[in-house]
């Protein structure tokens, strides 16, 4: 029995050493052959025999063979289960811990009992955001944390400042986004907006609106009221 246990431990150790050597070979070959490839964060096996995942820049996924002779960019699909494994992996990598969001840097709108929660990164000059806000306005029993995220133009920063510095931030936002009312000029400390931009860059938020739900899942782009309801019910 002890001999069998020793054999199993030795096998596991050898397997670990072999995996480390394989990863080192892939890293070495890719860095030599494709020097413009960004620093590799991780190399890991995929469910496909002989195919490895290469992760760079935090969330960029490539695939390669055991000798790194080929580099593949694209989606890995499990045809039996009809699952996009690449998409699932990226969703996991880009998930945000909702409880870690600095909600003090957002303004809040509560509708109904406010039990369901969503955070949204938005630019006041974003046409898709305006369409999204009209749909969001139809959803009740939700608390919405809006992070001003002016990335489209210098005017976006000015409008965001006027909204953040308004006496009633939520009203100023809704007046502008839903009712096309002009924004009165206002001035105050806007370091929260700067922090929002840093937060967005950290989490690679590149477009607006971007929604983050209570379970950390992220949805980029404007979705309609029915889709918002679906996500809120699935992620609370």
- How many structurally independent domains? 2
Radius of gyration: 23 Å
* Content of β-strand: 15-25%
Proportion of helical residues: 40-55%
CATH architecture of the largest domain: 3-Layer(aba) Sandwich
Distance between the termini: 49 Å
Oligomer: single chain
Query: What's the order of the H and E elements?
Result: HEEEEEEHEEHEHHHEEH
Provide the spatial order of strands within the biggest beta sheet. 7-9-8-10-11
Which CATH class of the largest domain is shown? Alpha Beta
The overall pLDDT, averaged over residues, is 92
Kindly state the number of beta strands: 11
Account of the protein in words:
The protein is 41% helix and 21% strand. A hairpin with a 4-residue loop joins strand 5 and strand 6 (83-84). It folds into 2 domains: 26-94, Nuclear Transport Factor 2, Chain: A, CATH 3.10.450.70; 98-235, Glutaredoxin (3-Layer(aba) Sandwich). The chain has 7 helices and 11 strands. It is elongated and about 70 Å long. It is α+β, with helices and mostly antiparallel strands and 236 residues long.
Short description:
The chain has 236 residues and is α+β, with helices and mostly antiparallel strands. The protein has helices at residues 2-33, 85-94, 127-136, 154-164, 169-179, 191-202, 225-235, and strands spanning 40-45, 51-56, 60-65, 71-72, 77-78, 83-84, 107-111, 116-122, 142-148, 210-213, 218-220. The chain is built from seven helices and eleven strands.
